[in-house]
Every structure is written in C-alpha cells, then in structure tokens.
C-alpha cells in the first residue's frame, strides 16, 4: 500500500507541471499576439511615412516606390 504523503507529493508535482505547461502556452500566445501587434504598428508607420513623403513633401514617384520597397523589406525582415 503506497504511503499517503508520497501520493500527495506526486499529485502536487503533477498539478504544478500542468500549471507550468499552461502558463508557458499562455505566454507563447501572448508573445505571438505582441509580434503581430508590433508588425501592424510598423506597417502603419511605414504607410504614414510614405503618405507624408508623397503628399506633404511631394517627392518623386520613383522615390516613393524605392522607399516603400526597402521599408517593407525591412519590416518583413524584423
């Protein structure tokens, strides 16, 4: 017959492991959501900057094209 304290210890250990797994999954999901939010934020900033260059600074269309290309590549890289 197993000893009761030993069983309690095993049950507690199992609950702790399950809780840790759950917290790790939750943190992973939170990190993924944060990356998506940051990605969207960067793209919004790029769009605003391109708009600023195009309509306020009145730069050439080729400059707009080039800046858009490289800023979007940078955004995808990070």
Can I get a quick summary?
The protein has 78 residues and is mostly helical.
What does this molecule look like?
It is a single chain. The protein has 78 residues and is mainly α. The chain has a domain at 25-77. It contains 2 helices and no strands. Helix 1 (4-56) packs antiparallel against helix 2. The termini are far apart.
Query: What ranges have pLDDT less than 50 throughout 5 or more consecutive residues?
Result: none
- What's the overall average pLDDT, rounded? 79
Can you count the helices? 2
Radius of gyration: 26 Å
Structural class: mainly alpha
- Range of helix content: over 70%
3D shape: rod-shaped
Number of strands: 0
State the end-to-end distance: 59 Å
H/E element order: HH
Query: What share of the residues does DSSP label as strand, in percent?
Result: under 5%
Characterize the biggest β-sheet. Answer: none
Summary tags:
78 residues; mainly alpha; 0% strand
Topology:
Blueprint: H1 4-56, H2 61-77
Helix pairs in contact: 1-2
């Amino acid at each position: 017959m197993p000893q009761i304290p030993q069983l309690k210890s095993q049950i507690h250990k199992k609950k702790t492991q399950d809780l840790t797994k759950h917290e790790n999954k939750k943190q992973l999901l939170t990190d993924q959501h944060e990356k998506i939010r940051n990605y969207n934020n960067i793209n919004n900033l790029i769009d605003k900057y391109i708009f600023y260059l195009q309509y306020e600074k009145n730069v050439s269309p080729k400059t707009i094209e080039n800046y858009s290309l490289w800023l979007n590549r940078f955004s995808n890289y990070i």
